[in-house]
Amino acid sequence: MNIPIYSIKLVREGTAGSGRAALKDSRAVQEFGRELLADLDREQFWVLLLDTKNRVIGANQVAVGTLDACLVHPREVFKAAVAASAASIIVLHNHPSGDPSPSREDRELTRRLAEAGRVLGIPVLDHVVIGQGAHFSFKDAALL
């Protein structure tokens, strides 16, 4: 029987943000996220990979959805985090409607990601939803 042999490689596809400043609060995450998610007509879901001092060591686009939905699975969120040896992650996505209020699906996904992060030893520090000139932070709302 022939068994495939795989290798996993992290490939840098570009850059975003400025420097390696620590993301100290949801406002800093929102500012960073605006560079990735500004003026999009579809939802996009990103994971920010952090080192032990909460500095961004990488960002990975997990999914591109439709006007009001984006299919995200924990396996895809943590794939880059494991490969990059991230100490923790922050997830973020946009709401093209401009209203950053989280949906029921956003709340359930956040719960599942936090649970998966605990199992993997890669905590989810926040889930930030970016809207038009505003954001919603699960951490700030004490939902994470």
Task: Provide a descriptive summary of the structure in words.
The chain has one domain: 3-Layer(aba) Sandwich (Cytidine Deaminase, domain 2). Helix content is 27%, strand content 23%. It contains three helices and five strands; from the N terminus they run αββαβαββ. The chain has helices at 26-37, 74-83, 104-120, and strands at 44-50, 56-64, 88-94, 124-130, 135-137. Strand 1 (44-50) and strand 2 form a beta hairpin. The longest helix has 17 residues, at 104-120. The protein is globular and about 55 Å long. 34% of the residues are buried.
- In CATH, the architecture is 3-Layer(aba) Sandwich
Count of alpha and pi helical runs: 3
Total beta-strand segments: 5
Reading side by side through the largest sheet, how are the strands ordered? 2-1-3-4-5
Q: What string gives the helices and strands in order?
A: HEEHEHEE
Give the structure's gist in a few sentences:
The chain has 144 residues and is of the alpha+beta class. Helices cover 27% and strands 23% of the residues.
Q: Top keywords for this entry?
A:
alpha+beta, Cytidine Deaminase, domain 2, 3 helices
Topology:
Elements: H1 26-37, E1 44-50, E2 56-64, H2 74-83, E3 88-94, H3 104-120, E4 124-130, E5 135-137
Parallel strand pairs: 3-4
Antiparallel strand pairs: 1-2, 1-3, 4-5
